[in-house]
Write a structure and sequence with these properties.
The protein is mainly α. It has one domain. Helices cover 75% and strands 0% of the residues. The chain contains three helices and no strands. Helix 1 packs across helix 2 and helix 2 crosses helix 3. The N and C termini lie close together (9 Å).
Amino acid sequence: MPLVKMVLQIAVMAMMWAIFGGVVISWLRAARVKVPYGNPFIRVIEEAADLMLRPIRRNIPASGGGLDFSPMIAILILYMLQAVIARL
């Protein structure tokens, strides 16, 4: 059981880092920094983050002014999941 718990914790942490990385990449693109779309590392980060963010974005529309709260909601959900895993 400890191995399963550790693997789940690592997966949750990896998803958090992917979401954070996706946010940073989007900020860089918004600031007109040339972040290559074809870079495999960048694509993996964005696609991993989109696995969690896409369902949230579908259910919660963006607020006025183009603010996207889905990364914050996803991180909150992942923190709660991490707390549940820690209690197993």
